[in-house]
Give the backbone structure.
Amino acid sequence: FIWVDPCNMNITLGTSDGVSEVDARDIMIELLDISVPKFKLEIAGVGCFAEGAKVESIWGKLLLTNELSRLHSQISRSIRQICEPLRVYKYIPHVKVAYITNERCKVAPL
């Protein structure tokens, strides 16, 4: 696996797959208007994203506070003003910490 450099870690706050370059530019402009006071983040667990049984990445799950929820809602609203997402994902606030490059890393059945 490959660790994400701490300088490159980020919080996923919203997604919109398959947007055009024009829509992406408009979304960026819309996001510039969002401003929130500073707030603390707390890692409350770990998880992984997988395609079938193949693990693709490992992430730290963030505690969904009121502040984080409000920020996510503002971002989602801004994206939907420009375009409708192709797929809607269940929001899991997280910070990706590693990418899996080894085929032997599989999700174990529960």
Remarks:
- The chain has two helices and four strands.
